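COURSE: Structural Biology Practicum
ASSIGNMENT: Worksheet 4, Part C
STUDENT ID: 0417
INSTRUCTIONS: Below are two proteins. For each, the amino acid sequence is given first, followed by its structure token string. Answer the questions at the end about the second protein only.

PROTEIN I
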Amino acid sequence: MEKSKTGYSGMISRAKELQYTLAARVVIRPFSLRRGYVAGVDAAFKSGKVIASACLLAYPGLERVEESVAVMDIDFPYVPGYLSFREAPAITEAIGKLKTRPDMIIADGQGIAHPRRIGLASHLGVLLNLPTIGAAKSRLIGTSEEPGPFKGDMAYLYHDGDVIGAVLRTRDNTKPLYVSPGHLTDLESAVAIVMSCVTRYRLPEPTRCAHNQSALNKLLV
């Protein structure tokens, strides 16, 4: 048992060191996309496996172009703040299966709105060298005021005195999303792109598609 605890502690320690290394490579800068391809990514879990989906949509029309899935064994424990190590390998494989390389990835997770500024979106962005955005359904860290009740209303998300994201209302009178830049984009660009990918649902279309595909493929595993 003691050896198991030591091994677990060592795994988390190495993961934390890697997070700091990856976080140092994150680049925050303005990003614009007039026409191209946006991929949404999400993951589900079942029976010791992670089921990752990637949905590629044409931008700005949001027509579905292609979808891919990757299934892997889970080899990292569930620890808040380290979920990228459970999801990123399978998501990276799913992105690699797409015939067209996306110009932007929106992840159902955090970007720099993370204790070490390296949530899933930032992690993927650095590994893939692609612009990424985190659009999470729940808050991991930070404080903010409540945004207004209407679509497009937002409030800044703060942590340790830094603006790390935005609490963004994507539909009138619904729960907000927690949007943060991942890599090769900034907060203003991230909010603009997420809003341009929202139709009549709370989630932007790329991640809504990926979420639905992950849930569907979960039934087949």
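PROTEIN II
(use this one for the questions)
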Amino acid sequence: MLRSRPTHYTSRPEQWSTLLQALGLVKTLDEDGWWEFDAGSGRLALGFVEHDHPLDGSTIFGVEVGDLAEFARRTEEAGTQADVHESNDGRTVRISAEDGFEFFAFPATRAADGTWATSTEADPALAVVASWISPFVGLAANDLRNIGARPRTEDDESATFTTKNGGILRVIHGADSTNGDLSFDYDGGLEPLLRRLTDAKIEARISEDVLYVASPDAAGGAAPASVVIEKSPPQQSHPSSPA
């Protein structure tokens, strides 16, 4: 079991909640300062931080898995360092990539029907993209293969992977190893999304098959200014496998 599940930190959670639900995500968890949203493919966690906190407006790369110990064992066996990690927030697996980047795999919870599927009420065409910046795209891509991600595209500048249980993982070439920005893929025309956003009074525009949505964080001075939704390639599908 593997699913894309980045975490976005913000001092403007209400505005983000409005934006995400206009995009077609469904809120599935609402706790004190912590929310989770299901897309048709993938999941997004939203965490509250105070304005001017170093994490305000940033997205942290992450995934969900079914069995933490088994995931760590398989990842280590494939050649990427993975350690079960205990903290005050619970049990996770810390993955240490060859380029020096570290990210965490979180325990997934099953849906009410016993499968790993995301909410059936979410827009099935929308996929959450977790991005990681790396000076060594090939090395990072190999680590994603080792955690069980499925290659979709790869060249010197980027590599994109799908996951068995929903969402997309992407490596983008950059000078340093760090977290990338939150984005989405959409398997269909972008005009219906634009209309939903407009109806919710959210500023957005389409340019060359990319939908740019004004980020709530930009109003507070946090970058980036826009959330990007790209049209999926024709061959791409977004399964939420029950396996």
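ANSWER KEY EXCERPT:
Q1: Residues 2-108+116-231 form a domain with the 2,3-Dihydroxybiphenyl 1,2-Dioxygenase; domain 1 fold (CATH 3.10.180.10).
Q2: The radius of gyration is 17 Å.
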